[in-house]
Design goal:
With 298 residues, this protein is an alpha/beta fold. 33% of the residues lie in helices and 28% in strands. The chain is built from 10 helices and 14 strands. The chain binds adenosine-5'-triphosphate (ATP). Adenosine-5'-triphosphate (ATP) is lined by residues 15, 18, 20, 38, 40-46. Residues 6-231 form the ABC transporter domain. GO terms for molecular function: ATP binding; ATP hydrolysis activity.
Length: 298
């Protein structure tokens, strides 16, 4: 039984002699944000385009809400994507673009105004899109994608060219959209940012998924330092769950292969008094570098 609102099942794609995707399986469950990272040419855009039927896989299947994407006559309302901000008609105003989009989706004009407001485009609503800055185009493309509150939202590099405060607002909005039960797939080169918004992280490398894990798990693996009243009790408990602990000279334990939450909970469960608990998180950038190092593909 599948759980994904958006599912890629063993998809492969070759453009002439370039193997863009190889046997990629991935699912985005309702209520979650999946963040996709990978170097240039890793295959991220190809995968996202497949989700809206713009690219057909050579082999494999793409399902939206359990239905093969090619069988869905009308994708509007179910899925929306912001793939390339540069494709908006230059002579249109932002107001025209959102009004047309609202009309096509049977939405009230008030919703068009609302998305312009949400992305700070109200003042520039009647300016030609051709005269927009990169960041403004980006904001408009995202506004258009989310106007119909799609159940599956796909954003390719959404915060590219956005001011930090707008990027922050967008992340907040993405999280809220997912919390409302929708599925979101985003790609980014900005790793610390993906870390903040994604529940799961997929690392694509040379067309292959090299990692697909909850963000928390990908970031774990750092060292945890803990000082408790009875360290030997904790060492034994850690040993039972497969984590190693080393005694330091000052009585602190250095624990590997566990998170601060896990070590703290274990100490609490054992009735230990915790005097100090410090986590040295593995930054996503380090994890990503390691995963995409040369030769690290199947
Ligand atoms: N229409 C196309 N024709 C030929 N080759 C293509 C086409 N689209 C993508 N490719 C190639 O497929 C590979 C994957 O490209 P894709 O755009 O999916 O990667 P990406 O991870 O999105 O990269 P970026 O981060 O640079 O946007 C690349 O080698 C690219 O050159």
């Amino acid at each position: 039984m599948s759980r994904g609102m958006l599912e890629f099942h063993r998809v492969s794609k070759t453009y002439r002699d370039v193997r863009a995707l190889r046997d990629v399986s991935l699912e985005v469950a309702p209520g979650t944000v999946v963040g996709m990272v990978g170097h240039n040419g890793a295959g991220k855009s190809t995968l996202m385009r497949m989700a809206v039927g713009l690219v057909r896989p050579d082999t494999g299947r793409v399902h939206l809400a359990g239905v093969p994407v090619e069988r869905l006559g009308r994708l509007g309302g179910l899925v929306a994507a912001s793939l390339d901000a540069a494709t908006l008609p230059a002579q249109w105003s932002a107001h025209t673009a959102v009004t047309v989009a609202a009309g096509l989706s049977g939405l009230p004009v008030a919703r068009a105004r609302e998305v312009l407001e949400l992305f700070g485009l109200t003042a520039a609503a009647h300016k030609r899109v051709g005269a927009f800055s990169m960041g403004m185009r980006q904001r408009l493309a995202i506004a258009l994608a989310l106007i119909g509150r799609p159940k599956v939202l796909i954003l390719d590099e959404p915060t590219n060219a956005l001011d930090p405060d707008i990027a922050h607002e967008l992340r907040t909005w993405i999280a809220a959209h997912a919390e409302a039960g929708n599925a979101v797939l985003i790609s980014s080169h900005n790793l610390p940012e993906i870390e903040q918004v994604a529940d799961r992280i997929v690392v694509l490398h040379q067309g292959v998924v090299v990692r697909d894990e909850p963000t928390r798990a990908l970031l774990a693996g750092g060292t945890v330092l803990i000082r408790v009243d009875r360290p030997d009790v904790l060492v034994e408990q850690l040993w039972h769950r497969g984590s190693k602990a080393e005694h330091l000279a000052d009585g602190t334990l250095r624990v590997t292969a566990a998170t601060t939450d896990e070590v703290g909970e274990l100490a609490a469960a054992g009735g230990l008094v915790v005097r100090e608990l410090v986590g040295e998180r593995q930054r996503l950038t380090d994890a990503y570098r390691r995963l995409t190092a040369d030769g690290n593909s199947r």
